[in-house]
Amino acid sequence: MTGAGGARFEPDRLDDQAYLVEGDPSGMLRTVASSAAEVRTAYRAAVESGLARIGRDGRPRAIVVAGMGASGLAGEVLEALCRYGAPGPVVTVRGYRLPGWVGAADLVVAVSRSGTTEETVAVTAEAVRRGCGLVGVGAPDTPLAALVARAGGPYVPVGGVAGRPEATLWSLMVPPILAAAAFGLVSVDEDEFESVARRLEDLAHRCRPSSESFINPGKTLAMELAGTVPVVWGTSPMAAVAAHLLAARLGAYAGYPAIWGELPEAAHNQIGTFDGPLAGRDIFADPFADEPGGGPRLRLFLLRDVEEHPQVTRSRTAAVRMAEDRGVPVSEITADGVRPLERLAALAGLVDYATVYLALGYGIDPASVAVSTELRARISQ
Ligand SMILES: O=P(O)(O)OC[C@H]1O[C@@H](O)[C@@H](O)[C@@H](O)[C@@H]1O
């Protein structure tokens, strides 16, 4: 994509079956529909790589997940899983350097679908120099794979779609979770991944292209996002990962901006936008214009978890009322499911569909937003 400035969202495109095929030449909708298969494949690949064996070396002081973009989200998922129950810290590093305290007592899990991202390769090389335990997740026969082999750590190979590192998250996030499980930091088993896969299959059915907009939750969410400035809040650590994922996917697939946060923190700063210049109805808008409203206005998207702190529940309820009082529309999406990963699947699966549909509604090929590749090329010269 060389720029889609001024593109218009046309809801009819979402129910035009021919357009949904032509407008998506890379088959992003098919890729999203294969998420359940990806969970199962990732689980098998992680087991076959011998990840469980790392537990024999004793529990590390901390687990550091290194990754950029979608690969960094794998670290956030593990942090969210471990936040309140794990006996040790999990930290995500997005950048060129490890924190000063990381050393031989710690485990670094390096995640890069391409296996070449320069920040992640630099952090992994630093982890090798410091003698950290090392696990790698990414494409085989790459600089990342070579570094992990040099340190004698397990490497979980990831295939995926060439040139689309963020196509689905599951192959990147399953291995770090199983690495943490090998040390007893989290308790997950094959059954849990199987129920995640079944939930994703169910979503793939409900969000399939042939399902009409008015009953298709992916298309509905895309229509609610279109033409707004989305403010996306999660009501638990795991729901906040989904909020971050939504903002990340909006940028990556549709070139669309959003701000995201987690309650209660978001109520301490982002709530200020409810009284800001983009909130409510535009009083200067021309009432006779073809498109009333005069430009994008704020909309609050609440990604709710069934497990919320009681004060977060109060904060959420009050924030919804305050938004509505100010004319800020609100969309609430509740993640159901017994286990945290099932609830993440319920939100992340919907996010993947909605953001691909949003791009298609704007006439944008969701696999064509290449500006991050251009930046990488510029800095590597
Ligand atoms: O997973 P790897 O290959 O390290 O990519 C990390 C990230 O790089 C960015 O520039 C984007 O392309 C993201 O979509 C991607 O998630």
- What are the low-pLDDT stretches, counting only 5+ consecutive residues below 50? none
* Structural class based on helices, strands and sheet pairing: alpha/beta
Q: Number of DSSP strands?
A: 9
Approximate strand percentage: 5-15%
Cα end-to-end separation: 22 Å
Number of individual domains: 2
InterPro entries: Glu6P/Mann6P_isomerase_C, SIS_dom, SIS_dom_sf
Keywords: Isomerase
Organism: Microbispora triticiradicis
Domain SIS: 51-191
Set out the fold topology.
Layout: H1 17-22, H2 28-33, H3 35-48, E1 63-66, H4 70-82, E2 90-93, E3 107-112, H5 118-129, E4 133-138, H6 143-150, E5 155-157, H7 170-182, H8 190-206, H9 217-225, E6 228-234, H10 237-254, E7 259-262, E8 297-305, H11 310-325, E9 330-335, H12 340-361, H13 371-379
Parallel strand pairs: 1-2, 1-3, 3-4, 4-5, 6-7, 6-8, 8-9
The structure holds 6-O-phosphono-beta-D-mannopyranose (M6D).
6-O-phosphono-beta-D-mannopyranose binds at residues 68-71, 112-114, 117, 120, 165-166, 252, 372, 376.
Family: Belongs to the PGI/PMI family.
Pfam families: bact-PGI_C
Protein name: Mannose-6-phosphate isomerase
Provide an overview of this structure:
The chain is of the alpha/beta class and 381 residues long. The chain folds into 2 domains: 28-194, Glucose-6-phosphate isomerase like protein, domain 1 (Rossmann fold); 211-284 and 294-370, 3-Layer(aba) Sandwich (Rossmann fold), CATH 3.40.50. Helices cover 43% and strands 13% of the residues. It has 13 helices and 9 strands. It has helices at residues 17-22, 28-33, 35-48, 70-82, 118-129, 143-150, 170-182, 190-206, 217-225, 237-254, 310-325, 340-361, 371-379, and strands at 63-66, 90-93, 107-112, 133-138, 155-157, 228-234, 259-262, 297-305, 330-335. It has a 5-stranded parallel beta sheet with strand order 2-1-3-4-5, with helices on both faces. It has a 4-stranded parallel beta sheet with strand order 7-6-8-9, with helices on both faces. Helix 9 (217-225) packs across helix 12 and helix 10 runs parallel beside helix 12 (340-361). It is globular, with a radius of gyration of 21 Å. Bound molecules: 6-O-phosphono-beta-D-mannopyranose. The site of 6-O-phosphono-beta-D-mannopyranose has 14 residues, from helix 4 and helix 13. 6-O-phosphono-beta-D-mannopyranose (M6D) is lined by residues 68-71, 112-114, 117, 120, 165-166, 252, 372, 376.
